[in-house]
């Protein structure tokens, strides 16, 4: 959800709270019915009321669409830009995640892998510095040597990303979530 959608949602929620408060006041019969009907008929006869209702309908449709949109579509647009001699090369974050996943799963003793890639861009003058941080959450078998596996994984991931993609990784953090015999299989999405 974009920041503009969050602002619209906040305003929309506030407006709906005010409308709900108005309905509560009307049901408590704090005002005479003839005054309410006179004001209601006046409001309905104004074109501004129809415009505001149409605006709320459009906002409702927009928020409905945003609530069911996939965040995967937004994350696939994220990429690391590598400046080459003949032009720029964009490497998608999902491609880096898949490469790290393949390397991590190839290590003996690793049962499950979850990867998070953070890219931080720092602009200083006309130069842009991109730092890549990778966090790998793993499940290992009880026969595994955790310090040995983590050192091996960090080195293999760093070398593979340098040789394949051409980027230097700032940090590779390994988190051992569990030590288990069970192998966790990825769920297939149909």
Describe this structure in words.
The chain is an alpha+beta fold. It has helices at 3-27, 33-44, 47-68, 71-76, 93-105, 146-164; strands at residues 79-83, 88-92, 110-124, 127-140, 171-179. It has 2 domains: 3-69, no CATH class; 91-179, Cation efflux protein, cytoplasmic domain (Alpha-Beta Plaits), CATH 3.30.70. Helix content is 51%, strand content 25%. The strands form 2 sheets. It has a 3-stranded mixed beta sheet with strand order 3-4-5, with helices on one face. Strands 1-2 form a two-stranded antiparallel sheet.
Concise overview:
This protein has 190 residues and is an alpha+beta fold.
Throw out a few tags for this protein:
190 residues; Alpha-Beta Plaits; three-stranded mixed sheet; two-stranded antiparallel ribbon; alpha+beta
Number of domains: 2
CATH class annotation of the largest domain: Alpha Beta
Count the DSSP helices: 6
Instruction: Choose one word for the global shape.
Output: elongated
* Superfamily (CATH H level) name of the largest domain: Cation efflux protein, cytoplasmic domain
CATH topology name of the largest domain, in short, is Alpha-Beta Plaits
* Strand arrangement, major sheet: 3-4-5
Briefly note the structural class of the backbone. Answer: alpha+beta
């Amino acid at each position: 959800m974009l920041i503009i959608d969050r602002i619209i949602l906040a305003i929309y929620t506030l407006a709906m709270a005010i409308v709900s408060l108005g309905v509560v006041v009307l049901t408590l019969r704090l005002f005479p019915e003839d005054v309410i009907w006179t004001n209601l008929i006046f409001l309905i006869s104004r074109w501004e009321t129809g415009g505001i209702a149409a605006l709320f309908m459009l906002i409702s449709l927009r928020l409905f669409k945003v609530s069911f949109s996939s965040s995967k579509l937004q994350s696939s647009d994220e990429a690391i830009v590598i400046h080459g001699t003949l032009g720029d090369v964009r490497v998608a974050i999902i491609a880096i995640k898949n490469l790290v996943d393949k390397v991590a799963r190839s290590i003996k003793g690793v049962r499950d892998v979850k990867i998070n890639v953070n890219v931080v861009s720092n602009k200083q003058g006309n130069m842009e510095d991109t730092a890549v941080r990778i966090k790998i959450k793993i499940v290992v078998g009880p026969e595994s040597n955790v310090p040995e596996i983590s050192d091996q994984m960090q080195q293999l991931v760093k070398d593979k990303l340098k040789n394949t993609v051409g980027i230097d990784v700032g940090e590779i953090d390994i988190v051992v979530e569990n030590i288990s015999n069970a192998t966790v299989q990825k769920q297939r999405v149909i």
